[in-house]
Amino acid sequence: MSTSAPGGRTRTPTVFEQQREELVREIAVGMEEVLQNINRLNRNLEGIIAVGNEFSSVEALWSQFENFMGRAGEEGEGEGHAEGEGQHDDHHDDSRVEESGRASATGIKEER
């Protein structure tokens, strides 16, 4: 590739200019590939999110079931303690302490 010099003469590009133009072309091709890969990644992420959104109704149903079962279990525990108020279940309390200690030792938090 030749360029025109101020005096009207044409000059050939130097080795530096040739290498620079080649590197600029390589960078442009690389940036185009990056753009294509980002677009592909975006489409894949959108597909994953769409699949996740399809399970939102199932998750809501399981949450309702869990909440219902938790309330039913709390009501059952309350009735059991009301009948035998004078009695205390040490084993039951020890197992809860042991479970909470195990959960905190592993770094897992339980919701109760």
From TrEMBL:
Domain of life of the source: Eukaryota
Task: Quote the Pfam families the UniProt record gives.
Answer: DASH_Dad1
Coiled coil regions, renumbered to chain: none
Q: What is its main location?
A: nucleus
- Entry keyword set: Cell cycle, Cell division, Centromere, Chromosome, Cytoplasm, Cytoskeleton, Kinetochore, Microtubule, Mitosis, Nucleus
Which family does the record claim for this protein? Belongs to the DASH complex DAD1 family.
Task: Kindly provide the name given to this protein in its UniProt entry.
Answer: DASH complex subunit DAD1
Source organism: Paecilomyces lecythidis
Provide the organism lineage as a comma list: Eukaryota, Fungi, Dikarya, Ascomycota, Pezizomycotina
What gene is it encoded by? DAD1_1
